[in-house]
Write a structure and sequence with these properties.
Blueprint: H1 8-39, H2 43-69, H3 74-91, H4 98-126, H5 130-158, H6 167-183, H7 198-211, H8 213-243, H9 248-275, H10 278-295, H11 302-320, H12 323-328, H13 336-364, H14 367-388, E1 397-401, E2 417-421
Antiparallel strand pairs: 1-2
Helix pairs in contact: 1-2, 1-5, 1-6, 2-4, 2-7, 2-8, 2-13, 3-4, 3-6, 4-13, 5-9, 7-13, 8-9, 8-10, 8-11, 8-13, 8-14, 9-11, 10-11, 10-14, 13-14
GO molecular function: transmembrane transporter activity
Pfam families: MFS_1
Organism: Pseudomonas monteilii
Length: 434
């Protein structure tokens, strides 16, 4: 897996990602503690609302940013967005009112909504080989998981000597170092497609996504993933500190358990995906999430919660990590940034549903009700994904005909009926048989 780091450009981008993630992880722990400090037992509702605002920023900003990204230098764009995120993180320790949390979260996550899809869409251009890209995906997932382990552990250690407000300083440093690392490499220029209107460029990724059967199935599976991760992110602090009466460091350790489960699966994925197709692996991960949420209704101790979080982390990684491979083989290189932005926006639309649901059910009814509600959402989405993403719609080479194209069109030079690797584009606006 580590052989992919021989590529200097990817190595620098990967290090930038890792450093920014550690800083973001510290902010995640600190934000939960800040919400608890401002709202007490109602922290789940406050955190759920803050994260819903984050999702709204992702949904609204990502497609618009993608529409302009192909006309802007990638490196300058990524560095600038890192600096914006660092500036906002610098203000978070001075928050004294809940509404201030909401405003700063919106600005911070708007910058992330422009940064992340652009960053993700750059990697396939740097690593065109399928095996190397698969290793990069697993390494990226491992980075997220190590962050889930290291950041809470680091936070737990820091909380013994400083207040949680000081954790935000780590976020600032992370974004500044990330900007410096991106600035040290030359990134491939985005491939410009035909001239289109702003509306066409903004909606292009969404149209490709919703017209590709495997991607519609991925969207449904995203909702299963969002249901499980929302329960972990929103309600861990309430479960640990309100239900079990444990200190802040125990909250950090519980979040670490989720990351550890995900990390174990990420390490095994490159070999697993050589023997198992993406669809089967991702649906298996979704099934683990559904069962795990259901078992959450029986959690009655801190250590049973830790064990459950490990299992949910494993299911999360199995269902989520291969999605980059699905996006890559469902698009041309020029449409890839728009498609990654669409995945970013649509997957976060799922969290926009599940974050407030997790928070408000937990605060207004009970944590058991939150587990039950999210189990139902996850199960229905998983069933829908399995029905939409059928094996016959997962083939790469698809036989089809072009009755709509004229005889002299270059694409039908060898006949209007043919077979090739099929993706939705200008010559293929609709999936055959759908």
């Amino acid at each position: 897996m580590l052989s992919v780091l021989k590529n200097r450009t990817y190595r620098h981008l990967f290090l930038a990602q890792v450093i920014a993630l550690v800083g973001t992880g510290l902010a995640t722990v600190a934000l939960g503690l800040l919400a608890f400090d401002l709202a007490g037992a109602q922290a789940g509702a406050v955190l759920g609302t803050a994260l819903a605002i984050k999702m709204a920023a992702y949904i609204g900003v990502a497609p618009v940013a993608a529409a302009f990204a192909e006309h802007l230098p990638r490196k300058a764009m990524l560095v600038t967005l890192d600096l914006v995120r660092a500036a906002v993180a610098l203000l978070l320790p001075f928050v004294t009112e809940i509404w201030q949390v909401y405003v700063l979260i919106f600005v911070l996550q708007s910058a992330s909504a422009a940064f992340t899809p652009t960053f993700q869409a750059t990697i396939p251009d740097i690593l065109p080989d399928e095996r190397e890209y698969t290793r990069a995906l697993s390494l990226s997932r491992l980075a997220y998981d190590l962050e889930s382990v290291i950041s809470p552990m680091l936070a737990a250690l820091l909380l013994t000597v400083v207040s949680f407000h000081s954790l935000f300083a780590g976020t600032v440093v992370g974004f500044l170092v990330s900007a410096a690392m991106v600035a040290t490499v030359v990134l491939p220029a985005a491939i410009r497609g035909p001239k289109r209107s702003i509306y066409e460029r903004t909606t292009k990724g969404m149209r490709i996504f919703l017209r590709t059967p495997r991607l519609r199935g991925l969207l449904a599976l995203n909702l299963t993933v969002a249901a499980a991760s929302a329960m972990v992110i929103v309600n861990t602090v309430v479960l640990v500190q309100s239900r079990f009466g444990l200190p802040q460091s125990s909250t950090a350790m519980a979040l670490m358990a989720f990351g550890a489960g995900s990390m174990i699966v990420a390490l095994a994925l490159p070999r697993l995906l050589e023997r198992l197709d993406d669809r089967k692996a991702m649906l298996a991960g979704g099934a683990v999430l559904v069962v795990g949420l259901l078992l959450g209704t029986f959690v009655n101790s801190y250590w049973s919660l830790v064990g459950l979080w490990v299992a949910l982390g494993a299911g999360y990684s199995l269902a989520q990590t291969p999605s980059g491979r699905i996006l890559r083989r469902s698009s041309t290189s020029q449409d890839r940034p728009a498609l990654f932005a669409a995945q970013f926006a649509l997957s976060h639309a799922c969290w926009l549903i599940t974050y407030p649901l997790a928070g408000w059910l937990g605060a207004s009814v009970s944590l058991t009700a939150s587990f039950i509600g999210l189990t139902l959402v996850a199960a229905m989405a998983w069933i829908l994904s399995k029905q939409i993403w059928r094996p016959e719609y997962d083939e790469e080479v698809v036989a089809h005909s072009h009755v709509d194209l004229p005889e002299n069109h270059p694409h039908v030079a060898e006949g209007k009926a043919h077979a090739h690797t099929f993706v939705i584009d200008d010559d293929h606006p609709k999936w055959p048989g759908c």
